[in-house]
């Protein structure tokens, strides 16, 4: 899925007027960012095909991807996450208000004089657009490292639930990054485009595309039909309809696991509620993601977090049955 998204986005603008010879596709997911250049998936500085969609500031330096993720346990108040849920939105938006229940150390605040959301990191304030621009610059940097040449033109994928406000804000971020956006394309539409490129149908054919990401779930139905281009049969398509749930994604499952771990720690300690303390909860939230991935292939997993709260180590285990019951 990740590769199809990137390559389809590129294919959409491969012959766009005014585009440079080098066009990249960027999938700005809620949790990860993927970049494609031509037919290649760009690997980052850690030789990984996807990068944590995080930015951190530590001792005056910007940290991205794995370096930012490594700071979550030690310096969670230096790390900005979930920017895709904030960009182009105000403090009253349900997705922004919901961040307070996700155990994030750094939350946005509304600057009334400027009329925008801001996040404070190492004593400085940044808007979601400014932070997203830095992530786009990181995408350009890893592309140059991977291909040996710079890039100016890009296609960006966006979730189906983005309104005009979010899309304009993303374009503003790209402008700050000096990145020329040829178009924005919905994620499931990008997949449908890739599907059409690889297949030719002799009659109408309907396909349902389903994408559950970290932030939400999108579904679309596309109709593929034959079309003649200079005497050659090719596939064309149209999106017949789409639906989404912005609250149902990987993060929702992570939060259920986070609650399980918090309950177990509270039971271990015997007093107080660790959920009232943002720093240890940030550690448990990060740990829950790893637990979720391991439980997909194992029926149980031991969980150990040193010095979780008040210098108390957390020792426990979680079963797949517990997880399943919590997510019903």
What would you note in describing this structure?
- The chain is of the alpha+beta class.
- The protein has three domains: 185 residues, ATPase, nucleotide binding domain (Nucleotidyltransferase, domain 5, 2-Layer Sandwich); 46 residues; 77 residues, Actin, Chain A, domain 4 (Alpha-Beta Complex), CATH 3.90.640.
- β1 and β2 form a beta hairpin.
Task: Summarize the helices and strands and which ones pair or pack.
Elements: H1 2-12, E1 23-28, E2 32-37, E3 40-41, E4 51-52, E5 55-58, E6 61-64, H2 65-69, H3 71-74, E7 79-80, H4 94-97, E8 109-111, E9 116-121, E10 124-126, H5 128-147, E11 153-158, H6 164-176, E12 180-186, H7 187-198, E13 205-212, E14 217-229, E15 232-245, H8 250-269, H9 278-295, E16 300-309, E17 312-319, H10 320-326
Parallel strand pairs: 1-11, 11-12
Antiparallel strand pairs: 1-2, 2-3, 2-4, 5-6, 5-7, 8-9, 9-10, 13-14, 14-15, 16-17
Helix pairs in contact: 1-7, 5-6, 8-9
CATH class of the largest domain: Alpha Beta
- Cα separation of the termini: 26 Å
Low-confidence stretches: 1-20
Radius of gyration over C-alpha positions, nearest whole angstrom: 21 Å
- CATH level-four homologous superfamily name of the largest domain: ATPase, nucleotide binding domain
**Tally of discrete structural domains:** 3
Structural class of the helix and strand makeup?
A: alpha+beta
Q: How can the largest sheet be summarized?
A: 6 strands, mixed
In round numbers, the mean pLDDT is 90
Order of helices and strands: HEEEEEEHHEHEEEHEHEHEEEHHEEH
Percentage of residues in helical conformation = 25-40%
Q: What is the strand content?
A: 25-35%
Shape: globular
Task: Give the count of helical stretches.
Answer: 10
CATH topology of the largest domain: Nucleotidyltransferase, domain 5
Number of strands: 17
Tell me which CATH architecture of the largest domain applies here.
2-Layer Sandwich
């Amino acid at each position: 899925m990740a590769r199809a998204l990137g390559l389809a986005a590129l294919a959409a603008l491969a012959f766009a007027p005014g585009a440079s010879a080098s066009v990249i596709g960027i999938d700005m997911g809620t949790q990860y960012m993927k970049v494609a250049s031509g037919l290649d998936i760009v690997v980052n500085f850690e030789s990984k095909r996807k990068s944590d969609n995080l930015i951190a500031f530590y001792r005056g330096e910007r940290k991205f991807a794995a370096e930012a993720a490594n700071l979550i346990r030690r310096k969670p108040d230096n790390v900005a996450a979930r920017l895709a849920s904030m960009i182009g939105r105000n403090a009253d938006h349900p997705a922004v208000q919901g961040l307070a229940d996700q155990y994030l150390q750094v939350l946005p605040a509304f600057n009334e004089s400027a009329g925008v959301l801001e996040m404070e990191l190492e004593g400085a304030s940044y808007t979601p657009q400014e932070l997203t621009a830095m992530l786009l610059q990181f995408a350009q940097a890893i592309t140059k490292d991977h291909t040996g040449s710079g890039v100016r033109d890009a296609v960006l994928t966006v979730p189906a639930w983005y309104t005009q406000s979010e899309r304009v804000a993303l374009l503003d971020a790209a402008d700050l990054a000096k990145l020329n956006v040829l178009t924005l394309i919905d994620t499931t539409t990008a997949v449908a485009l890739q599907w059409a490129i690889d297949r030719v149908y002799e009659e109408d054919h309907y396909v349902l595309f389903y994408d559950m990401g970290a932030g939400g779930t999108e579904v679309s139905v596309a109709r593929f039909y034959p079309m003649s281009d200079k005497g050659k049969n090719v596939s064309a398509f149209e999106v017949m309809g789409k639906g989404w749930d912005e609250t149902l994604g990987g993060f929702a499952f992570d939060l259920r696991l986070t609650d399980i771990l918090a309950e177990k720690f509270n039971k271990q300690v015997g007093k107080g509620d660790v959920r009232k303390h943002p720093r240890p909860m940030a550690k448990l939230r990060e740990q829950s993601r790893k637990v979720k991935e391991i439980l997909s292939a194992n029926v149980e997993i031991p969980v150990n977090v040193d010095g979780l709260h008040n210098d108390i180590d957390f020792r426990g285990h979680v079963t797949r049955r517990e997880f399943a019951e919590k997510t019903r």
